């Protein structure tokens, strides 16, 4: 549409009814000039009030003077917590408290323990906030970061009306009446009522492994911290930590207070959406070529593969599983102890030397499931060699496929296996679920291998697991060391306690139980086809 130049004029000369210019035009008020810096501040304030992530992004350089490093999870966490903060600040009934299980080097403390309290006070200037960490030192450190932001030129420029009237080592108070009190869990926590409570890594590694110290922390959480709200229907509690023990703070929350909390779970690496909460966030992880894994933050110095390899070496398998995978377990294991496996691994060279010139029977034990849903158990099969009344687990595979794709995948694997180091002559398949159909059709696809049906019997999985306990404890279940699947296989087999409720992936344990029972009893619970 063409522009009328007259429309661009600030004023038009008034005309009379005859179209002639008036002798005395009406006066025109001058347009006041606008300071662009003031306008920018006003625009930012409006944006920050509506967008917690925008506030955090511009706040971040003022914490430690570092450049803001972005990754998808930062915005996801900010966007996730914003509605909860807004509801609490505006007096709306709470939906649920938040329990976030997130590993190190993700920026979680800056989001939840520095930015969130500040943003909450902007929404609710008279709010009372309590933050608690695992010790007075960390509490002071987080409080110091927050005060550094408050005293920055950026904050003073955008919020000149927000001034401190109290500033001491245990917190601060605004001229508006709002305040933040910061404790270490090791200090005497007074009965402070709050509008927002934030608990940040209440346990560290030493206290998490001590029953007495862990119970002391949990008692303080339940009796002195949780539930002390000015308005019990509105007040919000945000707990965030990396997992350190099955009975750590998140363990207690999820066991005793599950109906009051929603869970966030962000492992440093994940194999499926079942590992991540919310599960749809798994799609935003970075695929790692050739491994099937996905990484949370694939950046050098953060959580790239070299960084994670270093962390695994530094923390050990158990520590890495807890802190980075958010998958806590007893340090000893479940019914089958971790040490029974790790003390009896065998290298490829050791197996080659041991089996050289010997007759070894290689068999495959398969627990089948037709699914592409990562929340469900996968099909798992283990290639096992039997020698000297010992079983040697030499390969383990997991698949989540439809039945046609699973048949093709298994057939291709068996064909490759036939020409490999450990050629299997028998494949045992559990007769439940898709087992019978799989056996029948695999006979047609792979005629040179014998397929046999397994039945687990009437015993529970816990009873069957206990049935192989002495065999495994005696060091007769040997696992091939240094393979991509070794740690996951050991983790699945040693994590099972028999008390689990809900879905958990323990299909690998079934294959081990079948392999050991086969070695102990010979032909068992099977119907030859």
Automatic annotation (TrEMBL):
InterPro entries for this protein:
Phage_terminase_lsu-like_C (IPR006517), Terminase_6C (IPR035421)
> Basic residues composition bias: which ranges?
14-26
**Which residues does the annotated region (Disordered) include?**
12-31
Biological classification of the source: Bacteria, Pseudomonadati, Bacteroidota, Cytophagia, Cytophagales
Tell me which domain of life the UniProt entry assigns to the organism this sequence originates from: Bacteria
Q: Which UniProt keywords apply?
A: Viral release from host cell
- Organism whose genome encodes this protein: Hymenobacter jeongseonensis
What is the protein name given in its UniProt record? Phage terminase large subunit
Q: Which residues form a coiled coil?
A: none
Query: NCBIfam families, alphabetically?
Result: psiM2_ORF9 (TIGR01630)
Q: Identify the residues that the record assigns to the Terminase large subunit gp17-like C-terminal domain, covering every copy.
A: 367-517
């Amino acid at each position: 549409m063409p522009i009328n130049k007259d429309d661009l004029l600030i004023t038009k000369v008034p005309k009379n009814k005859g179209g002639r210019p008036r002798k005395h035009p009406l006066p025109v008020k001058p347009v006041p000039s606008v300071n662009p810096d003031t306008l920018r501040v006003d625009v930012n304030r409006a944006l920050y009030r509506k967008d917690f992530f925008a506030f955090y992004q511009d706040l971040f350089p003022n914490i430690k003077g570092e450049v803001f490093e972005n990754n998808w999870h930062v915005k996801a966490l900010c966007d996730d917590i914003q509605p909860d903060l807004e509801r609490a600040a505006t007096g709306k009934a709470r939906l649920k408290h938040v329990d976030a299980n997130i590993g190190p080097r993700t920026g979680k403390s800056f989001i939840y323990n520095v930015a969130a309290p500040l943003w909450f006070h902007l929404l609710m200037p008279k709010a009372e906030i309590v933050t608690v960490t695992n010790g007075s030192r960390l509490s002071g450190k987080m409080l110091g970061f927050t005060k550094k932001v408050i005293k920055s030129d950026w904050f003073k420029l955008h919020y000149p009306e927000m001034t401190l009237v109290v500033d001491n080592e245990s917190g601060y108070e605004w001229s508006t009446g709002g305040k933040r009190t910061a404790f270490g869990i090791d200090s005497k926590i007074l009965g402070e009522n709050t509008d927002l409570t934030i608990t940040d890594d209440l346990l560290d590694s030493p206290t998490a492994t001590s029953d007495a110290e862990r119970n002391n922390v949990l008692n303080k959480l339940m009796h002195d911290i949780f539930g002390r709200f000015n308005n019990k229907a509105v007040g919000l509690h945000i707990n965030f930590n990396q997992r350190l023990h099955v009975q750590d703070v998140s363990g207690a929350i999820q066991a005793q207070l599950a109906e009051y909390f929603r869970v966030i779970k962000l492992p440093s690496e994940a194999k499926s959406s079942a590992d991540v909460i919310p599960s749809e966030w798994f799609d935003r992880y970075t695929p790692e070529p050739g491994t099937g894994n996905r990484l949370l933050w694939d950046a050098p110095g953060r959580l790239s593969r070299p960084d994670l390899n270093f962390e695994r070496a530094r923390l050990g398998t158990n520590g890495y599983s807890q802190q980075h995978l958010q998958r806590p377990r007893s340090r000893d294991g479940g019914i089958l102890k971790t040490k029974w496996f790790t003390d009896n691994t065998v290298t490829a060279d050791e197996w080659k030397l041991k089996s050289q010139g010997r007759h070894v029977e290689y068999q495959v034990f398969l627990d089948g499931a037709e699914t592409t849903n990562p929340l469900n158990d996968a099909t798992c099969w283990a290639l096992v060699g039997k020698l000297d009344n010992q079983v040697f687990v030499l390969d383990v595979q997991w698949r989540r496929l439809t039945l046609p794709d699973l048949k093709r995948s298994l057939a291709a694997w068996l064909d490759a296996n036939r020409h490999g180091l450990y050629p299997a002559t028998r494949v045992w398949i559990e007769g439940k679920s898709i087992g019978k159909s799989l056996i029948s059709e695999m006979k047609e696809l792979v005629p040179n291998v014998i397929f046999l049906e397994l039945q687990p019997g009437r015993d529970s999985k816990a009873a069957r697991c206990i049935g192989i306990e002495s065999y495994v404890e005696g060091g007769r279940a040997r696992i091939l060391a240094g393979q991509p699947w070794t740690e996951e296989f050991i983790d699945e087999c040693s994590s099972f306690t028999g008390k689990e409720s809900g879905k958990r992936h323990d299909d690998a344990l079934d294959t081990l139980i079948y392999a050991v029972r086969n070695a102990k009893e010979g032909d068992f619970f099977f119907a030859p086809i």
